TrEMBL record, chain A:
Keywords: 2Fe-2S, Disulfide bond, Iron, Iron-sulfur, Metal-binding. NCBIfam families: TAT_signal_seq (TIGR01409). It comes from the Archaea. It comes from Acidiplasma aeolicum. This is (2Fe-2S)-binding protein. Residues 141-238 form the Rieske domain.
Automatic annotation (TrEMBL), chain B:
The keyword Iron applies. The chain crosses the membrane at residues 48-68, 88-107, 127-148, 198-220, 245-265, 301-324, 336-359, 371-390. It is found in: Membrane. This is Cytochrome B. The keyword Metal-binding applies. SUPFAM superfamilies: a domain/subunit of cytochrome bc1 complex (Ubiquinol-cytochrome c reductase), Transmembrane di-heme cytochromes. It comes from Acidiplasma cupricumulans. One of its GO terms (cellular component) is membrane. Gene3D superfamilies: Cytochrome Bc1 Complex, Chain C.
Length: 349, 399
């Protein structure tokens, strides 16, 4: 070892090693305290206290009506569907708006998940699911489901609703057949299918994950969260006539925690939260949707599966975001892949 | 007459390239080594090609950086393509050179693997730094791919964040660690914060780290010399200047030329922007991501639970291969199981790339996956041991 004049004498080398060790230890301790400076202060802090009451608008800024959405209603024979998406509860959190003709969407029960075969059980005698707009005059259900896949967070157009007669190519590869032809037939009203890894959700079952009931296992761990919708006129024909109902505006007022574990937000560690923490968890780390200049409706109506079907009341009686004790009306824009609402949910027009 | 205080100026610039002889004692020398004619074999230059790609990426990256904006990244990318002079060809060649760089890194790595040049005085360290550079290359590429804010890029970002949260990283390590990592990656997750962070990581942090580690990697190479070169052949050494320099420059020009030709012939098409809706469209991830992805998928036990530890395991295995390889002789057939495993990795990578690229979103059955891995094992191990047997037999007969 110690050859030549430049060799470091043994004691000095030991001192050097000590110094180096101390430096590394100091760096480690310093690095730990450094964490708080790197992580932004607004990480993990909710941008609002509760789910916003938001009016659905078109890209031109006009409130959309039930009749507007019903134009996009798909029946079981549809070969394609327009994608309708709005941001809720925060910006950049896409939510599907799906109108299905000839179906009354009711709260799914364990008993209606089939153990064999694949046909959805018709729950015609039940009341519509909480937060679903059901038009009894035209027999159309309008449901809003989170557009963030519960597997790994893929969003539209990767996650996409394919109605009865349009099986996506990827779903055909895993074994889905057109309905009426085999065990793993594409359901009558189609599925929401994620092309990233094949997660399957049934909109007619309120966005329920198929788990192992499909042609291939659905890798998602949860069902799609359902965003609850309300109208400013009643679907009860004894209160309002049909054209008044179909002309009413649509409001999103929260997420149905009953049927789905909510984890729409992706950025906070330990992202899967259950129960009352869901709200705060869900409203962190993003940007609030803008507030609306429309007047707040005096009464909103929504279906409630128990006990008396329709729940009605002033917006303040619903569990929505309030600032200084009064309800604030937010707005969210519905965009589509074609037609007059063509747009981009990330970069609004 | 007073004695001059200054050395005389030397205006003959060619003398810069002369060897410095009488350096004072204690001087640290970083040399450019001369080699024999063996050093000019094409497989000895795989590292130079990767270095070429790195330098080209830095130069074109700086040009693109002038026009990029993290406020509206997709529009900024469209602007670079449509409005910046030569923007389309520069952006496309930046993309293609990234592809080339990743391919060349694999080539460079597998060449050293098969030749076994990761053992020797400083070579083990050079190998480890090389693996770190490989990781940095892939990560920088993925960051760059996210910067355009396409739908597929944001899917990658979301999936990456979820992997951090749900895999061993997020589940075993304390929550604050992942929060810290995510804070570095996306800030508070608004669009501008996200892209400012991704941009800073891509253009400053990762690329600087890569350049710095590359400098050490290269310096270690110049210290050790070529793995299979005979260093004692007096009179047969070819001076570094100008032969080696010119060889490096010419091979660099050829690679850059090929990439520019490809960039001009096949200009990059920007895929669907994040947030835009299209019925039935399905952009596919870049080819260098799909094998990792497919591998994680076919590992079983889910992408994050089984896949992330598998990838970490493979990386650790590659990292410590200099210490696992206990064979005494050099040569491909003298180290049979290392060679066979190298072939296995190459084949696996190729199969995973093609499979992942053609069917990115499909989960496979366990049985198919088992068939695949066992046949790959057979294909890679059997010929190597058979050839080794044949060679021994031939040598025995010759004697």
């Amino acid at each position: 070892m110690n050859k030549g004049n430049n060799a470091v004498p043994e004691p000095e080398r030991r001192a050097f090693l000590k110094g180096a060790g101390l430096s590394v230890a100091a760096l480690l301790v310093g690095g730990l305290s450094f964490e708080r400076y790197v992580v932004p202060k607004d990480r993990g802090i909710p941008v609002m206290d509760n789910y916003p009451l938001a009016i659905l608008e078109d890209p031109q800024g006009n409130p959309i009506t039930v009749a507007d959405v019903e134009q996009y209603a798909v029946s079981s024979t549809a070969t394609s569907a327009n994608i309708l998406v709005f941001n809720y509860p925060l910006q950049d959190e896409p939510t599907f708006l799906i109108a299905i003709k000839g179906v009354k969407i009711t709260t799914p029960e364990d008993s209606i998940v089939p153990t064999s075969g694949f046909a959805p059980v018709s729950p015609s005698s039940k009341a519509p699911m909480t937060g679903v707009i059901y038009d009894p005059f035209n027999d159309i259900s309008i449901i809003a489901l989170s557009g963030i896949c519960q597997h790994l967070g893929c969003v539209p157009p990767f996650l996409d609703y394919h109605p009865g007669k349009s099986i996506p190519f990827e779903a055909q590869l895993v074994g889905y057949k057109t309905n009426g032809t085999g065990v793993f037939e594409w359901p009558t009203n189609g599925l929401i299918y994620c092309k990233c890894h094949g997660s399957q959700y049934n909109p007619v079952w309120g966005g329920s994950n198929l788990y192992n009931n499909g042609a291939a296992p659905s890798p998602a761990n949860h069902s799609l969260p359902q965003i609850m919708l309300a109208t400013n006129n009643s679907p009860d024909s004894s209160l309002d006539d049909p054209s008044t109902f179909t002309g009413s505006y649509i409001f999103a007022y929260g997420i149905n925690s009953k049927n789905a574990v909510i984890r729409t937000h992706l950025q906070y560690p330990g992202g899967q939260t259950y129960g009352p923490q869901v709200k705060k968890e869900n409203l962190t780390g993003g940007t609030a949707i803008p507030t609306s200049t429309q007047s707040i409706p005096s009464t909103i109506y929504t279906y409630k599966d128990t006990p008396s079907n329709i729940e009605t009341g002033a917006p303040s009686s619903f569990d929505v975001n309030q600032v200084n004790g009064s309800v604030v009306l937010y707005k969210t824009v519905v965009v589509s892949n074609s037609g007059p609402w063509k747009g981009n949910f990330h970069r609004l027009p | 007459m007073e004695k001059a205080e200054y050395e005389k100026n030397e205006y003959d610039l060619t003398k810069i390239m002369e060897e410095e002889k009488d350096l004072p004692e204690g001087t640290y020398k970083i040399g450019f080594r001369s080699v024999t004619t063996k050093g000019y074999r094409i497989d000895e230059w795989t590292g130079a090609w990767v270095a070429t790609a790195l330098i080209y990426q830095i130069v074109t990256g700086i040009i693109i950086f002038f026009y990029y904006s993290q406020v509206d990244p997709y529009r900024a990318t469209e602007y670079i393509i449509d409005d910046v002079p030569f923007g389309h060809i520069i952006l496309t060649s930046h993309l293609y050179m990234a592809y080339a760089m990743i391919g060349l890194v694999y080539f460079h790595m597998m060449r050293q693997w098969l030749v076994g040049s990761y053992r020797g005085k400083w070579r083990w360290l050079q190998w480890i730094l090389g693996v770190v550079l490989f990781l940095l290359t892939i990560l920088t590429a993925i960051l760059g791919y996210m910067l355009a804010n396409t739908a597929i890029a944001m899917a990658a970002l979301h999936i990456g964040l979820l992997f951090m949260q749900r895999s061993v990283l997020g589940r075993i390590l304390p929550g604050a660690f992942i929060n810290w990592l995510e804070g570095i990656l996306v800030g508070n997750y608004t669009t501008t914060a996200t892209f400012s962070h991704l941009l800073a990581l891509h253009v400053a942090v990762f690329s600087t780290l890569m350049l710095a580690i590359f400098a050490v990697h290269f310096m270690l190479f110049e210290r050790s010399g070529l793995a299979n070169d005979d260093k004692t052949e007096k009179g047969k050494m070819i001076p570094w200047y100008p032969t080696n320099l010119l060889y490096a420059v010419f091979s660099a020009i050829i690679i850059i030329g090929v990439i520019i030709i490809f960039a001009a012939a096949f200009p990059q098409k920007l895929t669907l922007g994040y947030g835009s809706l299209a019925y039935g469209t399905f952009p596919v991830p870049d080819w260098y991501i799909t094998p990792v992805y497919k591998l994680m998928d076919v590992a079983g036990y889910g992408l994050s639970t089984g896949g992330v530890p598998l990838i970490i395991g493979i990386l650790i295995f590659i990292l410590i291969i200099p210490f696992i390889d206990r064979y005494h002789k050099k040569g491909v057939l003298e180290r049979p199981w290392i060679t066979a495993f190298g072939v296995y990795l190459v084949l696996g990578l190729a199969v995973m790339t093609i499979w992942g690229y053609s069917q990115p979103g499909l989960t496979q059955t366990r049985l198919l996956t088992e068939y695949l891995w066992w046949s790959l094992t057979l294909i890679s191990f059997l010929p190597v041991y058979a050839m080794r047997f044949a060679k021994k037999d031939g040598d025995a007969n010759a004697n």
